[in-house]
Amino acid sequence: MRIDVLSLFPAIASAALCESMMKRAQDAGLFTFKSHDLRDWTHDKYRRADDAPYGGGQGMVMKCEPIFEAVESLRTPETRVVFMGPCGRRFDQRIAQEYSDFGAKGGHLIILCGHYEGVDQRVLDHLVDDEISVGDYVLTNGVIAAVVFVDAIVRLIPGVLGDDASATDDSFATGLLEFPHYTRPPEYRGWKIPDILLSGNHAHIERWRREQALERTRQRRPDLLPPEVG
User: Fold this and answer.
1) Which of 48, 149, 152, 193 would suit a FRET pair with 33, their CA atoms being 20 to 30 Å apart?
2) What is the pLDDT of residues 49-104, one digit of tens each?
3) pTM here?
4) Record: fold of 2-154
């Protein structure tokens, strides 16, 4: 899977996606990543990638020219261009899996990050294939959202996690929040782990985990439960 991120602050994406598990995945050849500065596709001495909005108003708008030139220089027949913006589809585990599957088939992602008041609408109308929102709130810039997007996608690629089965038990992967976890010591400050986890009966443990996941979801995110369960 190949991922290119286009923004005005490329160091933010590089700092997050070239460390820890993401770095190990790149070193293992499971995906490639590069963060690009949109100013590299400007042609004036000030390297301006934004301008005042037509019609007046506050803030600045990212210009068409450098964005189109950047995408057109990187695009291949396998490319999908995604814009991180508040008007897009709300990101969830289903969409993360959709894009991970796309990458597994040799897909190439160009992720465009908005800043200021956003991008010229002509970019969204004629260049972008999909728009994704990571939630109903506003961030300083779209690179932060892009990091979340990429991390959620890449961790689903087989081989990225130490155990590929780990992703199947994650919150939202099964439609439920994840069950509680415990590790050594078995007792700390008088708080003991549930006895069933020491029983060695894996069928009972799996049933307990399922019950805990259901109860946690019922209490904290009942909107995730189908009507027949809720």
Assistant:
1) 48
2) 999 999 999 899 999 999 999 999 999 999 999 999 999 999 999 999 999 999 99
3) 0.88
4) Alpha/beta knot (3.40.1280)
Question: Would you call 92 a catalytic residue per the annotation?
Answer: no
Give the residue range(s) of CATH 3.40.1280.10 domains in the chain: 2-154
Q: Is 206 a catalytic residue?
A: no
Amino acid present at 13: A
CATH number for region 171-224: 1.10.1270.20
- The larger pLDDT score, comparing residue 139 to residue 168, is at 139
At residue 164, the pLDDT reads: 60
Q: Is 170 a known active-site residue?
A: yes
From 47, 80, 86, 131, the catalytic residue: 86
pLDDT tops 70 at residue 170 = no
